[in-house]
Specification:
Blueprint: E1 30-32, E2 36-39, H1 43-56, H2 58-62, H3 74-89, E3 95-100, E4 106-116, E5 121-128, H4 137-151, E6 156-162, H5 166-174, E7 178-189, E8 192-202, E9 219-221
Parallel strand pairs: 5-6
Antiparallel strand pairs: 1-2, 1-9, 2-3, 3-4, 4-5, 6-8, 7-8
Length: 250
């Protein structure tokens, strides 16, 4: 049967119209949700606070985040954040630090593991300090970032995580993502082969809440202002770009 005809010999249905891919441009530098401020990092201001969490929680974080052993001092952390600034300004990657809105205490990070402007695709990951687990804060932060991504013109948002990382996998499930694939033994973690779960949310999905205006409870600002940004993430395989595996998490 020719691919040019349907099962009954009739002409195939036309493909859905494809929206133009977004042109590379800056991401919002500040996203405010009900309980959080999600913003670009400022390396000199934020490195000590972020490093304190990493250093205190090395064993827990390293289970899923392969970059943890590379961060031995606050200087290492600042050096990474300084590098991230260039990625943001080149529109290659966008990463945010997460803070409590009321106290401005450091909570964790949400960011992109992959940005494919030509395909309208972005992949997200995240990590959080143990003291803030179980409060829905990662879900809230990721929701804010994914809305910003759709407002930027992306069509598909992905989250990838290890099949053993049930906390990470719970985030896309809560946000209405679809499980597209389970890639068998796709990664190696601490000497063992494990599966990777691939979740996606499309701009056209009911759960996506797309639109160019920030949804209620979300303020997006400073889209073009130069600032430092952040990295890491709790839900991705090893990095596909640049050599720094801190772009991804478990």
């Amino acid at each position: 049967m020719s691919e040019r005809s349907g099962a009954d010999g009739s002409p195939p249905a036309p493909h859905a119209a494809v929206a133009a891919a977004p042109a590379p441009h800056p991401a919002p530098t500040r996203i405010v949700t009900e309980r959080l401020v999600v913003r670009q990092p400022r390396p000199q201001d934020d490195a000590v606070q972020a490093f304190a969490v990493i250093d205190a929680e090395r064993d827990r974080l390293h289970r899923w985040l392969p970059w943890v052993p590379n961060i031995r001092t606050a200087g290492d952390e600042q050096a990474f954040l300084d590098r991230v600034v260039g990625w943001w300004e080149a529109h290659e990657q966008f990463h945010w630090l997460v803070f409590e809105r009321d106290t401005y205490a450091f909570v964790g990070s949400v960011g992109t593991a992959r940005v494919a402007w030509d395909q309208g695709l972005v992949e997200l990951g995240y990590w959080i300090a143990q003291a803030y687990e179980g409060q829905g804060l990662v879900t809230e932060a990721v929701r804010g970032v994914q809305r910003a991504c759709f407002a930027m013109g992306f069509h598909r948002v992905e989250i990838r995580c290890s099949s053993g990382n049930t906390r990470s996998a719970a985030i896309p499930k809560r946000l209405g993502y679809q499980l597209d694939a389970q890639l068998r033994e796709e990664r190696i973690e601490h000497g063992a082969r494990v599966d990777t779960l691939v979740y996606s949310l499309l701009r056209t999905d009911n759960a996506a809440e797309p639109g160019t205006d920030p949804p209620r409870g979300l303020r997006v600002s400073d889209a073009g202002r130069r600032q430092p940004r952040i990295r890491r993430i709790i839900c991705q395989p090893e990095p596909r770009q640049r050599g720094d595996d801190r772009r991804r998490g478990p």
